[in-house]
Amino acid sequence: MQSRITISPELREWILATTRAGHGVPEVLQLMKENGYDPRQSRSIVAEVLKLPLAALHASTSKQASPGLRTKHPEAPDVTIDGHTIHVTLGVDTPTLRVLDNILTEQECTELIALAQPRLQRALTVDTEGRQQVDQRRTSEGMFFTLGELPLVARIEQRLAGLLDVPVNHGEGLQVLHYLPGQEYEPHYDWFDPEQPGYAAITATGGQRIASVVMYLNTPAQGGGTAFPEIGLTVTARCGSAVYFAYEGGDRSSLHAGLPVLRGEKWIATKWLRERPYKTSAKA
What we know:
single chain; Jelly Rolls; nine-stranded antiparallel beta sheet; 26% strand; elongated
């Protein structure tokens, strides 16, 4: 049985007034989160004020709390963007995560690999001061395209913008990564830690990262999936598919890893999305 919680008269009246004004429960919970309330406590408070079963709130908490696919195309199994149909084959609520089949065609994957291959360098990470560094946790090679650098890149960016309802200029440049047998990226977050000294420098252009799209450009012979250890999920790397996950506000359930390639090789293209327009120079 749910224990009794203390709710101030002002908060109770605000919740009631906000819902009477036509705002749904997910919007109320998101507003409370933005004002510093713990999400779990917020669900209990809203359930008490609105006389709702707490389980009902757990089912609906993230429907409008995260940017992108879930809000623009709620629970649609197939989404068509500019004549290209993408299949939504798996959904998770926390973090907001979707597995997307046919986000790229086989020809697009092959062309993207060919365009990236001559420009590969050792992949870097960002240290606590905001500087790029070689990191033993990340053993792949990679490169960046600038926004709209080539027709193929621009087409992929427009497709993602239409699918996720996030403007193209809120994305970092498309990064292509190549992993050989034994190479991996150990568990990490894509969002930037506000407690680190380099946070202001990293987020000065574009703000915080809010979501990632990892697109698989080939199918490794064995291994190379994307693991989410906090939720016990591994997404298999399959040519043309992708995993999208959002983490606005620094969702720790978005912890993920690029698992070691056991046989063959792995090629991926990653798009990171920011709060605000993002501009940077080419990173070849």
